[in-house]
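>> Question from a student workshop board

For tomorrow's exercise we were told to take the sequence and the ligand below, predict the bound structure, and bring the output to class. My setup keeps failing. Could a helper post the expected result so I can at least see what it should look like? The ligand is iron/sulfur cluster.
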Amino acid sequence: MLIQKWEREILKSKCNPMQEGVHCIIHVDADLSDVIPYLNAELGGDFCSDNPPYVTFKIHGKLLTVHPHKIAINAIKDEQEANKIANWIVRQINEIWENKDNIEPTYDVPKKPQPLEVLKILPKTNCRKCNCPTCMVFATMVCQGVKGVDDCPELSLDKKKELEKYLKASILGRDKKVSFSD
Ligand code: SF4
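>> Workshop helper replied:
Here is what the output should look like for this input. Compare the format with yours to find the bug.
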């Protein structure tokens, strides 16, 4: 087991002590630097770096960041929720470390899709058949995940495949695996 012992520290917002919600720091007895790219690969990090090493997950409006010697969790409702998330991430780290020989580690995170890149693939006729006033508006909605490739009836099969490939390589194509209820 990578993490044998850990301690939870609950903090109130320094800027506004009256603010609802708490922050939680989990202090661990292990160096987590080496497990970070494995966590990123398995759980799908939103931000990740090797120097300094960290990985951040955005989930249900919270930010959870794994640093080499601590784990920070922001905007938690209460201590009960802090306990649930702390137990979850410690369990994930230990399980992923045990299974690391079967995981390809990476510090890469998928990029956000760009409306201009999507627009390049669209017919650019502004025909409005997708119920958008222009192809640019449609492209923006695609990047937000509101519209999909099937919503433009004017896309040829080749262009549809091209757009699908582009979106699959972006953050939209990722199957988010982080769920505190796991
Ligand atoms: S249906 Fe396609 S071509 Fe027509 S406006 Fe929408 S995105 Fe553009």
